[in-house]
């Protein structure tokens, strides 16, 4: 079974631009979560989607948004990029049945650099 | 909201030595606990998880962790470190965010260095 696939692996953008990151979950997984990882803040939860609906949201500004498609694939968008948005963005999928012990399966991430 | 504290952002051991990575959590209800490992330029991989039942949990690559409710701890151990264990390790707790919705809260991570 293929794992979680994130594209692209690396991105370089300029301040003020916008960016879209893509995530394909493991087949059969209906929940997709996004995390931002930085050396200073560690792993911070962005949001989670389940069956095309945002089910959970972290404490990030409205510039960060996402969506999920009917095939469970998800995209994350960041508008008006700031230097502080430079980070590794990780996507994770799970069965999402509401069972709290259902583990997350992570992709290898997209490394975003904002200059 | 629950929180996870990993004591020691960096732990260094010799090859063959005991590995002990510490994790404490705050929770008012029985938690579900996880350890993940992250190798350079990769995502996180599940090492082990505690849900209910036996408090000593065995995971992949020879790691295990013990849930101690009285100490609110879930420390990760491995009897003998191998060079390939060098990575960053994250402890996480599952948090109920309303109804049947849960999300993981991660600790800051512990970077494990293994010296030859």
Short description:
The complex is a heterodimer of chains A (115) and B (116). Chain A has no helices and 11 strands. With 115 residues, chain A is mainly beta.
Structure in words:
The complex is a heterodimer of chains A (115) and B (116). With 115 residues, chain A is mostly beta strands. Chain A contains no helices and 11 strands. In chain A, strands 2, 4, 5, 6, 9, 10 and 11 form a 7-stranded mixed β-sheet that branches. Chain A is globular and about 40 Å long. In chain A, 37% of the residues are buried. The mean pLDDT of chain A is 92. With 116 residues, chain B is mainly beta. Helices cover 0% and strands 60% of the residues of chain B. Chain B contains no helices and 11 strands. Chain B has strands at 3-7, 10-14, 19-26, 32-38, 44-50, 56-58, 64-68, 73-78, 87-98, 101-106, 110-115. In chain B, strands 2, 4, 5, 9, 10 and 11 form a 6-stranded mixed β-sheet that branches. Chain B is globular and about 50 Å long. The mean pLDDT of chain B is 90. Classes of the chains: A mainly beta (115), B mainly beta (116). Chain A binds chain B through residues 4, 6, 33, 35, 42-43, 45, 48, 55-56, 90, 92, 98-101, 103-109, and chain B through 32, 34, 36, 41-46, 49, 51, 90, 94, 96-97, 99-109.
């Amino acid at each position: 079974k293929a794992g979680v696939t994130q594209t692209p692996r690396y991105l370089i953008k300029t301040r003020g631009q916008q960016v879209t990151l893509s995530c394909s979950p493991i087949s059969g997984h209906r929940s997709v979560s996004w995390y931002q990882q930085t050396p200073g803040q560690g792993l911070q939860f962005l949001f989670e989607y389940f069956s095309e609906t945002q089910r959970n949201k972290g404490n990030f500004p409205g510039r960060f948004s996402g969506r999920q498609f009917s095939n469970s694939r998800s995209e994350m968008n960041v508008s008006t990029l700031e230097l502080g948005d430079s980070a590794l963005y990780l996507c994770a999928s799970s069965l999402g049945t509401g069972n709290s012990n259902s583990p997350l399966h992570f992709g290898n991430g997209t490394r975003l650099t904002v200059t | 909201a629950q929180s996870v504290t990993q004591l020691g952002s960096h732990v260094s051991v010799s090859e063959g030595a005991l590995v002990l990575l510490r994790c404490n959590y705050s929770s008012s209800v029985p938690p579900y606990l996880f350890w993940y490992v992250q190798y350079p330029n990769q995502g996180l991989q599940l090492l082990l998880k505690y849900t209910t039942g036996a408090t000593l949990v065995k995971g992949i690559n020879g790691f295990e962790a013990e849930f101690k409710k009285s100490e609110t701890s879930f420390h990760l151990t491995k009897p003998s470190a191998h060079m390939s264990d060098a990575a960053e390790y994250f402890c996480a707790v599952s948090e109920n965010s309303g109804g049947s919705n849960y999300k993981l809260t991660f600790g800051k991570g512990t970077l494990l260095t293994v010296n030859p």
